[in-house]
Amino acid sequence: MAIVIYARKSVERENSISCETQIEYCKAMIKPDERSEKIITLIDNGFSGGNVNRDGFQKMMTLIQKGKVSKVVVYKLDRISRSLSDFVNILQEFKEHKVEFVSSQESFDTSSPYGELIIKLLMVFAEFERTSIINRVTQAYAHRSELGFYMGGRQPYGFELVPAFIHNKKTKMLSPIPAEIEQIRYIFEIYAGENVSLRRLQDILLAEGRIPLNGSDWTTAKISAILKNPIYVRADSEIYDYYEHHGVRMITDNALFTGEYGAQLYGRSKHRSCDTDWSDMKLVLMTHRGVVDSDIWLKCQRKLEKNKQLTNSFSNPTSWLAGKVICKKCGHTMTTIKGKINKNGEIRRYFNCTGKTHKKNCTGPDCSVYAEDLENMVYDCISGKLSEIKGFRNTDKKNHAAEVNDLKLKIKAVEKAEKQLMDTLLSGGCSGNLLELANQRAAQLENEKTALYEKIEKLNSNDDAKAVVIEPTKYWRTAGYEKKKSVAMIMIHQIIIDEKGNAQIVWNI
């Protein structure tokens, strides 16, 4: 039989007692007639007392179950467990195997009913203390989150943590890494375009050699997580409306959504059969500046919410190359049709010769010419052609986004005042004079809101035009189905497919 000395420490703190010191206290509790027995020391350093999933503890229980332990000595009761239910079960197992339990600081053991009673009472207070600690930590986390502190977790791609003082508290804030932020902006810009799926975006990034600078790989899941993260957006009134509409609790006042800073969404969402419930989520403005314009960010959210791959065979059965693909054998055009479901559960489009299906005078290519593969190849060839063309000038409207956003924030403030006034009226208790004043105030607020909307309309309609340079390659990267089809009609005369499935592009330019 052996005596087990058990020590546990959850985290390193200056004022907390070390496992080594605990062991010394425990050794002092061993009686002179017990010193000839074998002493086994088991330590769990860095483990919480909230559960029993600890290596040292499990080894101790295994020895007890095998009948090799006569006594367990600890520094304090909560070293064994801070959970009353766990401790009662542990104590019962000690009794079944006739193991004495001794605490050096509480000065009692389980050899008497009185000692067992005291242990249970003390464990009630130990669990109360644990619950209090959890509540304090939770409240502190929530408070710091609402102040805009970065609360840890996986560091978002594009940022690094730098020391900072926020609200006179020492903490850390996100600081952009220029090279990574450039990739982030590119990801949002491309995905916001029409007919660009997550898979297509991944292919573009890989084809252009835009690999992650942290040594990882692009996956559709990683790209999707980046696109959904409000940490990147320049949060303005549109972002406020977007999350408020989704039922998110808005921590930061709407007047601060000026389109400068990023935001953080935290809490737990609830997934239903066809939607996501964000009612338990919170949004707070952060202290770092956003890097993606809200209009582009919102376009990406709308695409993600639809959850459709606009370029796949289910949503786009035809091809933007239709009418341009020619069979070399017979000279007839080739059209896209859907194939059967393959072993991966996919339905792929492929080009089929009309001389084979309609005229019955051609056997077509000897292999399948998949539409997506041909489109990707032609897409890259057009990109190469467009890269040789210099940018041209076009007109765009002067950007008054900041002024418009400020006006929208004022409108929200007016709407908030209207709601408060309405709540006051509905509560009753207003005399005739107060009711008349309330009606006058309501009319005043309505006039203010109308004037603000008129200012927004004026800014949007009467902006000064200015010349901007349009880069053809940038235009092409974000082109949707119709734009791609128009460009192909202008640039390509024919795409000739030979017997082996090879393609030859005959250009118009």
* Mean pLDDT reading: 80
**Rg computed from alpha carbons, rounded to a whole number of angstroms:** 35 Å
User: Low-confidence parts, pLDDT < 50 over ≥5 residues?
Assistant: 308-316, 464-468
Q: In what order do the strands lie side by side in the largest sheet?
A: 2-1-3-4-5
* Largest pleated sheet: 5 strands, mixed
Q: How would the global form be characterised?
A: flat
Overall number of domains: 4
Discrete helix count: 15
What is the third-level CATH name, the topology of the largest domain?
A: Hect, E3 ligase catalytic domain fold
Whole-Å distance between the termini? 92 Å
At CATH level 2, the architecture of the largest domain is Alpha-Beta Complex
Structural class: alpha/beta
Secondary structure tally: strands = 20
General description of the model:
The chain is an alpha/beta fold. 42% of the residues lie in helices and 21% in strands. It has 15 helices and 20 strands. It has helices at 19-27, 55-65, 84-96, 113-146, 178-191, 198-207, 220-228, 237-245, 294-306, 354-357, 371-387, 401-426, 432-461, 472-477, 481-491; strands at residues 2-9, 38-45, 69-74, 100-103, 108-109, 159-166, 169-176, 249-250, 261-266, 270-271, 276-277, 282-289, 325-327, 334-341, 347-353, 369-370, 392-397, 465-470, 492-497, 503-507. The longest helix is centred in the N-terminal third of the chain and has 34 residues, at 113-146. The protein starts with a strand and ends with a strand. The model is unreliable at 308-316 and 464-468 (pLDDT under 50).
